[in-house]
Design goal:
It is a single chain. The chain has four helices and no strands. It is an all-alpha fold. The chain has one domain: DksA, coiled-coil domain (Four Helix Bundle (Hemerythrin (Met), subunit A), Up-down Bundle), CATH 1.20.120. The longest helix has 44 residues. The N and C termini lie far apart (62 Å). The structure holds zinc ion. The site of zinc ion has 8 residues, from helix 4.
């Protein structure tokens, strides 16, 4: 048996595992999003009376919801790149993302150094509200 055949089988299998993990995560995220939307709806109904004691809570749910939607988008993106064969490649610098990082964050699209760079660039900006 030729060596590359074994390796490509292994690579395919690894992607299969990751794909399963991503698909499971996508389902969880979708469920979480509908749960959060439901929670927001309930609060809207409560919020009609004096003041708004739940405003902070609402903001928190909204922020969570935004996070979840972003996560869902990255998961969908990761699944797409898996289909076109670019999965595991950093979108910013084109280097391979380390397998350990992909293991921990299967939907990431940036290698660890680009991620660090991006965070450094974002961090000093003032909060928008
Ligand atoms: Zn990179």
């Amino acid at each position: 048996m030729v060596m590359w055949e074994v390796r490509s089988i292994l690579a395919e299998d690894r992607h299969g595992q990751v794909r399963k993990k991503l698909e499971a995560e996508r389902e969880e995220t979708v469920a979480e999003i509908s749960r959060l939307r439901e929670a927001l709806k309930c609060e809207l109904e409560y919020d009609t009376e004096e003041g708004d004691p739940d405003l902070w809570e609402r903001e928190k749910v909204l922020a969570l919801l935004r996070n979840m939607e972003q996560k869902l988008e990255s998961i969908a993106h990761a699944l797409r790149t898996m289909d076109d064969g670019t999965y595991g490649i950093c979108e910013n610098c084109g280097q391979d993302i380390s397998p350990a990082r992909l293991e921990a964050l299967p939907h990431t699209t940036l290698c660890i150094s680009c991620k660090a760079l991006l965070e450094k660039r974002i961090a000093p900006e003032p909060l928008s509200r």
